[in-house]
Amino acid sequence: RARTFHCSKLHLARQFEVLTTKTGIYLLQDGSEEPFNIRLHLAKDILTIQEQDVICVSGEPFYSSERTVTIRRQTIGGFGLSIKGGAEHKIPVVISKISKEQKAELSGLLFIGDGILQINGINVRSYRHEEVVQVLRNAGEEVTLTVSFLKRTPAFLKLPLCEDCVPSDQSSGTSSPLCDSGLHLNYHPNNTDTLSCSSWPMSPGLRWEKRWVDLRLIPLLHARLSHAHIFHFSRQNAFQVIAVDGVCSGVIQCPSVDECTDWLQAIASNTSALTKHNVSTIAIIFMGWVDEKEQDSVQDRMYTSKFLALRGSSLFKFSAPPVTTWDWTRAEKSFTVYEIMFKILKGNELVDKRKHCFSVQTDSGEDIFFSVGLECELLLWEKAFQMATFFEVERIQCKTYACIVDSHLMGLTIDFSMGFVCFDAATKAVLWRYKFSQLKGSSDDGKSKIKFLFQNPDTKLIEAKELEFSNLFAVLHCIHAFFAAKVACLDPMFVSSRNAAMAPVVKTKLLNVC
């Protein structure tokens, strides 16, 4: 019996296809690097990943890896800077705070996140945190710093993303690379009350600005979306997006599982909408990425990404999305849609910890297991398989299979209008016929034989008919497809969905099957 579309499922699927835009600040794990802050922006057709950088805004903007800034020590507040990090963390020390007193004067010159490379010409790239603190304490009234903005400052330093920060009002004799070391030092012997509280920084006239700049652009059409729980570091609050050309976002980490789910749904929604728009003119019902479980694998990680496409009479399985006409001839496998069986897996049917899974039983009886990241995607695939099967049954109207009855070659025709018709293969003489409504039960031996139980319309007695097929599962699935199509025609919700989907996909005459 066909699975009908309930209102809640349709609402969820339709909500899934609404275009979404989102922006937020998150962490990015890129390879073996420490996670760092990025800004994520989702548009209708692209996901933009941005990192902070400093560019020159004097005249034409340009990037520079290093800048030189000269500042003077204030009587009150010293240099007005705080630092974190050091060689013990395999990074230079980083400016972590700028005092309110220095903020205006250093605006456009120094930034939170600048790594200090040289102090008065001394290369401190490989200095430990405490060593840099001592160099700055003894640097004199005027200090020339060579700095470079560290776009990928490790997240464990917890640097603020804005400049509105004030350092602590005390400087201790010892310091920690993970805590701010205030460089507002007042004990220098040249410090006197006659010094001006204003210490104008000296610079060659260039002004700089911290901005979010594009790090990576991920086109969403045919993009593959993966929840990070399939990776080696099992994280439910992280995901990655892989473009069709192989460009990967890296692992994006969200503060919570709920926020991660929101992003997954938003990206999947836009990807689905793009796919729907892209296939509306080429007779494709639906296509997208899934994860296929490898045969005889009991480990969760043993999945391979595949691209499935429901087009015309077939389900195609690819290792990459088909772009050209030639690509469609190079599918790994293809199956006739009415000779396979789609099933959503629930409860004990789930083969591992993945929640959103479905199986496809092929015409040979093989079960192939797939998983997707979201319930919305699962519902879309269910709807797509129902539509594809219905369209094809409606198109072909009947299907005939060779069979053996009492050692004689026969034919069984499954007809959308008439039901079941068995005839002699040689003479074409009809042996018997029954309507779909007369089938009261059936059983099979799992190998080749099917026993049908039909009710005689006159005597009301049950009549058993046993047939033997060389392609048992193809026949069973075809019968199920025809029954599902008959039932679907009686479901107003399905008919409404069918009519909306048929316009851009197929142009066939609607049949009256009542």
The gist of it:
The protein has helices at residues 7-16, 100-106, 129-137, 257-279, 375-396, 472-488, 492-505; strands at residues 22-29, 36-42, 46-56, 62-63, 67-72, 81-85, 93-98, 114-119, 122-123, 142-149, 181-182, 208-219, 224-227, 238-242, 251-253, 284-293, 303-311, 314-318, 333-336, 341-344, 357-361, 367-371, 398-405, 408-415, 419-424, 430-434, 439-444, 449-455, 462-468. The chain has 514 residues and is an alpha+beta fold. 20% of the residues lie in helices and 34% in strands.
Largest sheet: 8 strands, antiparallel
Instruction: Please count the helical segments.
Output: 7
Unreliable stretches: 1-16, 165-174, 184-203, 229-233, 502-514
How far apart the termini lie comes to 17 Å
Q: Give the radius of gyration.
A: 34 Å
Regarding quaternary structure, how should these chains be classified?
single chain
Query: β content, as a range?
Result: 25-35%
Number of strands: 29
What does the overall shape look like?
A: rod-shaped
Report the helical percentage: 10-25%
* Chain-averaged pLDDT: 81
Give the class from helix and strand content and strand pairing: alpha+beta
Could you explain the architecture of this structure?
- The chain has 514 residues and is an alpha+beta fold.
- It is built from seven helices and 29 strands.
- Strand 21 and strand 22 (367-371) form a beta hairpin.
- The two termini are 17 Å apart.
